[in-house]
Structure to design on (280 residues):
């Protein structure tokens, strides 16, 4: 992990940058187009979006206007719950790539587990076999939901993108994914700013002369978790990328691990599966 271009290798041989840029919920002051262009200018090459975020068109425009070759960017999107099922997923994919202005994705994910996710997965396998998606995976799947899915798959998921931060580590899920060669990826790694309130992280920030965001993102990488922080502020976007010039001690990693209290910022995947409405 020498720089922002450093990558992990997925179980199918595809290279995925450890550090990505999230695009969930842009704001009115800083359009998603300008924000993503700034991230690309800084050096990010892993961009995460989803149909639910309503940022796909802006991301596509930013990539086009950046002048950076599409092949240099690891582009991710997700199929939303109401679009799940075999045929609907294939249609949703066509809509997504049209909005993004591309003819392929580097990674396509099932956004949340749903009763029809097995049919959705068959659609993802078809897209993968056709070369329209370089890697396929899931998001927000628990151990139980992963076990249920992979019992019938032809192609194993390459990614499980989950809520992951110092207060929600999910050790059983980490162990399961490791044993099945499924790369874990963190969304909301900074707990929507709540990490700044944690005394241990404040202490480590002083010790390493790094910001709390940098401490947490570096922790993600050192424990083998791909991470996708989001920000709309140029200074913060740059700050979040400056995590390759220091290393946390094993002792301090263990201290951060000990912060886990199974606290969720977002929805519980089991409740989403059962049909509860997502409002975050």
């Amino acid at each position: 992990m020498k720089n922002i271009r450093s990558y992990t290798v997925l179980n199918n041989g595809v290279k995925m940058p450890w550090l990505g840029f999230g695009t969930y919920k842009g704001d009115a002051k800083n359009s998603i187009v300008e924000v993503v262009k700034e991230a690309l200018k800084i050096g990010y090459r892993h961009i995460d979006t989803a149909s639910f975020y309503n940022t796909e068109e802006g991301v596509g425009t930013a990539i086009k206007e950046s002048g950076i070759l599409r092949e240099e960017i690891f582009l991710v999107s997700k199929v939303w719950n109401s679009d799940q099922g075999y045929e609907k997923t294939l249609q949703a994919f066509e809509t997504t790539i049209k909005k993004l202005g591309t003819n392929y994705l580097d990674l396509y994910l099932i956004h949340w587990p749903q009763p029809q996710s097995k049919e959705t997965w068959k659609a993802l396998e078809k897209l993968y076999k056709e070369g329209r998606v370089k890697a396929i995976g899931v998001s927000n799947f628990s151990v139980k939901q992963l076990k249920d899915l992979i019992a019938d798959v032809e192609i194993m998921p390459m990614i499980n993108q989950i809520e992951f931060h110092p207060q929600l580590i999910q050790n059983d899920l980490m162990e399961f994914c490791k044993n099945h060669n499924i790369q874990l990826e963190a969304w909301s790694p900074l707990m929507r700013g709540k990490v700044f309130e944690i005394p241990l992280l404040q202490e480590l920030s002083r010790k390493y002369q790094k910001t709390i965001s940098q401490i947490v993102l570096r922790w993600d990488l050192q424990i083998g978790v791909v991470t996708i922080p989001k920000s709309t502020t140029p200074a913060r976007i740059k700050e979040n990328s400056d995590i390759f010039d220091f290393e946390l001690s094993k002792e301090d990693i263990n201290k951060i691990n000990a912060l886990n209290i199974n606290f969720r910022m977002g929805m519980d995947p089991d409740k989403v599966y059962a049909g509860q409405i997502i409002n975050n």
Remarks:
- The chain has one domain: 7-203+212-273.
- The radius of gyration is 18 Å.
- The mean pLDDT is 95.
